[in-house]
Amino acid sequence: MGSVNDNDLSKKLKISPQISQILKNRYIDNEKDAEIFMNPSLEYLRDPFLMKDMKKAVDRIKKAIKNNENIWIYGDYDVDGVSSTSILCIYFDSINYPINYYIPNRLEEGYGINEESIKHIHSQGCNLMISVDCGITSVKEIDLANELGFDVIITDHHECQSEIPNAYAVINQKQEDCNYPFDMLCGCGVAFKLIQALTPKEEFKTSLYNYIEIVTLATICDIVPLKDENRILVKNGLKLMSECKNIGLKELIKVCGVESDKIKSSHIAFAIGPRINASGRLGYSKLGVELFTTKNQSKAKEIANMLEDKNNERQLIEAKMYQEAEAIIESNEKYKDDKVLVIAKEGWQHGIIGIVASKLTEKYYKPTILLTIEDGEATGSARSIKGFSIFDALVESKDLLNKFGGHDQAAGLALDSNKIEDLSYEVNQFAKYELNEEDLIENVNVEYELSEESIDLDLIEELHKLEPFGLSNPNPKFIVRDAILKNINVIGKNKQHLKFTIEKEKTYSCIGFNMAYLKSGYNQGDKVDVLFQLDENNFMGKRSVQFLLKDMRLAHPKNPYANEKTVELFSKIIPDVDNLYNLGQIDEKAICEKFKNEDIDECINETKNINIFDYLNKNTLVITNTINGFYKALSDISLIDEEKCSGFDINYNVINTKNDKLQLIFSPNIDKIDVKRYNNIILYDYLYNMGEYSYLCKNANNESSIIKYYNKSDLLYLNNVIDNLIPDREEFKVVYKIALIQKNLEVNLVDIKGVFNTTPLKLFTIIKVFKELSLLDFDFKYDEVLKIKSICINLLPKPDKKLNLNESKILNNLNELSKEYKQSY
User: Fold this and answer.
1) Cα–Cα distance for residue pair 456/128, rounded to 1 Å
2) DSSP label of 679
3) Exposure pattern of 551-563 as b/e (b: 16+ CB <10 Å)?
């Protein structure tokens, strides 16, 4: 169940249904788009002159070359800035025109253009300065350049503020009046478009290979979406890296211990990029430019080794800073409630702030601002989570800031150190309205449930067609359900990794890097759902499938009676006297017409071979009748992109009809639901009887689909519910005797079985019947987040007439429900 259907796309492109489904999940559902995605030709690169001010910039540069003017490139110290500077240096070298470049020292000057550097460049006789990966917020600095008498061309990709600098030309696709059709290029991508515009078309078809490897490096490391032009550049750049034309990059790849013919985006993001960044973080930014522009192999090797040393130094500083930041968080209770973490300390290394902020954001899944204090000023970096613009948060707090810039997910800032608490208050006030509790839970998207017959090395090979993976094209994650957990151990030098096997029809090896913390929640023999990426393990020349663990959860609670949430669900199954189950008429014709099958048994039987994640969208109703079905549905919903369903609501016996969110409902009274308003109705469990199927089929709108996402084995869970609905007379007596002795008692949900010696489901039947017959009253006590914690039972005065259970409408209704269930199945 949950496997993927064959379709026309897989046949036309000669790809498996699994790969076709992943493309569909990325909204690629036709032959042309799929071909461009998997084979993105450099011919699809866009016309650079569609960018605002591009022609103006090109004309000014050509004029400078013609007049032999003094040109300077002004870059930034991270991978994107270093790469941008490097490719412009390579371009001017290719036309034999000498230029100079300037990259600010991160430790002494901070991010972006500063006035001292403008004065320095002017003192060197600069006539034209071209900024790369910076400048869009440098209003005062560009005004100074204008006063000093040299022109500035800004090329940048960061978010624009209300005032654009008065430069000669501003090339940034994020300007409101720029009509370039793709606005997600990194800084190096924008610099590459400038080179494309400067180069004759025919010549560019061959000269672009001088730059594309470095553009690929910057694009991956700057974490921009890998789609459109970014995908074209990275896909082709990775192919070129297998031979590696750039001497410096080739030597750096060797130092990283990566085989160039097997290089992937992950190697660039986690091995090569950090070594370039490390030099900038420690104040040696020019090393990266020297590496990429040298033509001398021995010099390239020397610089690559220096970068390796700087990276090792960076790792030590980073580890210390991370521990100190964690200690600050753990020592102050306010950080538990804050939605944005603002952490500051004197003496932290300027250059390492950003990477530590990223790690804290990843661990706590909260936006994080990390600041170092020096001479009364706090400077630092901000990192964010999906759906929250840290840049917008800083804009709202700009009166507190001396300087800031960046984009939705990352920013740099500076402010007086005595304003740090004010900043923390302001950004958290902003977050209060922009983030809810659900936003602070990381949403991991899954492609589909992977069937066992499709798990093999061929699928792993075919997944390579979808590379490069990154933002907007994540490495596919799959789910396998109801697997038996075996041989669970922690491994690694510091016992930080988790290794285990899972067993279904076959056995699979799984490894979870830095996930040893999960072990304490599981035991051998547990039934688990596993979320993973597919990987290949090659040991002693033997290839095998391996799962890279991304998350794991129990398929359902080990002990349902010891789980508060589960017991609370049991309470929803038993109806109140004014909300009894409607045991409607059976209309077999309506059922057969809706399910397009003349066999009534086939109509209500399981549906196979569907990808449930195709159907979990907005205006969808999900119906569950068992604990197992509910947790399975909840698990699936937590794995979908929330934008697909506009969020979701969990309801019980009444449906909220005021919005178009996906609705998850447990043990419903089917006839109380306005089913006409839903595009999809998904049944994670069998319904209680044929009458409920009739109601759905007769009342759902003609265009809606009713999806049966269960199998015969799920009927066992519903059997268990029916078998526990109706207590015997002895169980009624036991509960009443306890109430008679205690008069008033409060019992935690998880203690019900121990106190009353009956299942929670039967207890809820008993107390609801007793309340109906005026023997006792009860109420639920809730915690601060409105979850039921306990049940309070109060004895009522003994009624005049003798108790007759046959007079209970609730009990009669449940007996009829049980009878119809057994007739239906």
Assistant:
1) 58
2) S
3) bbbbbbeeebbeb
587-625 burial code (b ≥16 CB/10 A, e <16) = beebbbebbeeeebeebbbeeeebbbbbbbbbbbbbbbb
Rounded to whole angstroms, how far apart are CA atoms 512 and 584? 50
Got the DSSP string for 555-573?
SS-SSGGG-HHHHHHHHHH
Contact 712, 608 (CB under 8 A): no
Give the residue among 629, 627, 576, 633 at the shortest CA–CA distance from 759: 627
Which residues sit opposite 405 in a β-bridge?
Answer: 412
pLDDT value, residue 278: 76
DSSP class of residue 374? E
Question: What is the residue type of 688?
Answer: Y
pLDDT in tens, 578-603: 889 988 788 889 889 888 888 888 88
User: Of 423, 394, 426, 424, nearest to 407 (Cα)?
Assistant: 394
Residues 6 or more apart in contact with residue 48 via CB below 8 angstroms:
54, 193, 194, 196, 197
pLDDT tens figures, 370-398? 999 999 999 999 999 888 899 999 999 99
Q: Which of 190, 154, 141, 146 is nearest to 56 (CA)?
A: 154
Across 681-701, b (16+ Cβ under 10 Å) vs e yields: bbbbbbbbbbbbbbbbbbebe
Burial of 543 (0-12, 13-18, 19+ CB in 10 A): exposed
pLDDT in tens, 463-473: 988 888 887 88
Answer for the pair 394, 411: CB distance below 8 angstroms, yes or no. yes
> What does the block give as tokens for 823?
């007739």
pTM score, whole prediction: 0.70
Q: Which residue has the tokens 């440098």?
A: 138
Token duo for residue 233? 């550049």
So what's the pLDDT on residue 654?
Answer: 42
Task: Tell me the average pLDDT across 130-153.
Answer: 96
- Give the side-chain half-sphere CA count within 13 A for 409: 13
Q: Does residue 291 carry a pLDDT above 60? A: yes
- Copy the structure tokens of residue 28: 């690629």
- Cis bond upstream, residue 274 (ω within 30): no
For residue 208 the two structure tokens come to 């672009």
Distance separating alpha carbons of residues 246 and 90, to the nearest angstrom: 11
In this structure, the number of other CB atoms found within 10 A of the CB of residue 47 comes to 13
Q: pLDDT-based confidence at 1, cuts 50/70/90?
A: very low
Query: Which residue shows structure tokens 């969990």?
Result: 650
Q: What percent of the chain has pLDDT over 70?
A: 94
Long-range contacts of 532-535, Cβ-Cβ distance < 8 Å, separation of 24 or more: 532/477, 532/478, 532/479, 532/480, 533/475, 533/476, 533/477, 533/478, 534/455, 534/459, 534/460, 534/463, 534/476, 534/478, 535/460
Q: What is the pLDDT of residue 599?
A: 86
Altogether, the residues listed in the chain come to a count of 825
Helix (H, G, I), strand (E, B) or coil at 219: helix
Q: In what side-by-side order are the strands of the sheet with 705-708? A: 648-651, 662-666, 620-624, 680-683, 705-708
Q: Please, which residues have CB within 8 angstroms of residue 43's CB and are 6 or more apart in sequence?
A: none
Q: Which helix (H) or strand (E) holds 666?
A: strand 662-666
**Contact call for residues 510 and 547 (beta carbons, < 8 A):** yes
3 state DSSP class of 616: coil
What order of strands is seen across the sheet that includes strand 744-748? 744-748, 788-795, 776-782
Say how far apart CA 469 and CA 476 lie, in whole Å.
Answer: 9
Of 557, 707, 544, 530, the closest CA to residue 617 belongs to 707
Place of tokens 């599981």: 522
